[in-house]
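Duplicate of #3305? Posting structure anyway:
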């Protein structure tokens, strides 16, 4: 654990945002893409697809130039060996220009070597408990009086999942150790976790005593426009799966606390295709 936090001290990333009014932070997020590339083909509206997703995110960036774009993991395919699909997902994610990604189980399905060469060296990754020198334990974004700390959590949910698990430490022990060291670094703690909606039930008091302000991500659940408030006051938001929605959280400093607003953005046919992403998807279709 000491080695992990030595890395933390070396690689901590602090950046300053300008342009938000009234101490406001805007976080746009995706979660549990589950290997989805094209639209879902699930009816008249056909949700999802990277060309629409990029257009939606670009539109938000025009309104909020300093927004923070994050992903909670499980964005690759759920099975090993599907290198074609995974390659185009990774190329699409590069075009989306994420600030932070918290890797989850599916990112390890093609082995540790693939993770190192194709993921950890290409993206800004945060995780409290993944054991890789290229993964930062935390990153911090600052906006006036808001010092927002972002970290992630990597979980193995079953014995079968452990076959492809990346090297990691125990989730709650890692977060507790981190919590001791970050008290004066931030006044807003945000956790990215693909299974975020399960933390309170799974870990009980171990989790509740950590007092994170916001958890982004939920596992295989229908998207919820509202904000769930846990037993200890932690806020939970989720945007579903398969890339059919993206989420937007607006956080406004109010006295000693924060006000939160959560919005779901449907990735449907009303959103035009981004031309660059569309060319990439046409190339993918020709090769599959």
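Output from current build:
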């Amino acid at each position: 654990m000491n080695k992990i936090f030595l890395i933390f001290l070396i690689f901590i990333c602090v950046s300053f945002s300008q342009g938000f009014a009234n101490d406001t932070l805007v976080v746009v997020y995706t979660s549990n893409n589950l290997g989805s590339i094209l639209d879902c083909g699930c009816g008249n509206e056909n949700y999802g697809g990277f060309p629409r997703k990029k257009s939606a995110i670009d539109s938000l960036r025009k309104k909020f130039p300093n927004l923070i774009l994050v992903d909670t993991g499980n964005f690759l395919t759920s099975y090993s060996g599907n290198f074609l699909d995974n390659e185009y997902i990774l190329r699409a994610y590069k075009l989306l220009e994420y600030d932070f990604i918290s890797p989850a189980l599916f990112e390890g399905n093609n082995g540790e070597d693939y993770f190192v060469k194709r993921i950890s060296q290409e993206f800004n990754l945060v995780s409290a408990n993944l054991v890789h020198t290229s993964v930062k334990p935390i990153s911090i974004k600052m906006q006036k009086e808001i010092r927002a700390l972002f970290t992630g959590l990597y979980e193995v949910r079953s014995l079968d999942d452990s076959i492809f698990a990346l090297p990691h430490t125990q989730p709650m022990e890692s977060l507790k150790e981190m919590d001791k060291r970050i008290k004066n670094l931030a006044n807003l703690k945000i956790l990215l976790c693909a299974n975020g909606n399960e933390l309170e039930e799974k870990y009980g008091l171990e989790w509740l005593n950590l007092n994170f302000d916001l958890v982004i991500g939920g596992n295989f659940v229908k998207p919820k426009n509202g904000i769930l408030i846990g037993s200890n006051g932690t806020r939970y938001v989720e945007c579903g799966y398969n890339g059919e929605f993206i989420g937007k959280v607006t956080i406004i400093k109010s006295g000693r606390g924060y006000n939160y607003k959560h919005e779901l953005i449907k990735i449907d046919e009303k959103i035009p295709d981004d031309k660059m992403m569309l060319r990439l998807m046409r190339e993918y279709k020709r090769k599959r």
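Confirmed duplicate; merging threads. Residues 50-63 form the longest helix (14 residues). The CA atoms of residues 137 and 254 lie 28 Å apart.
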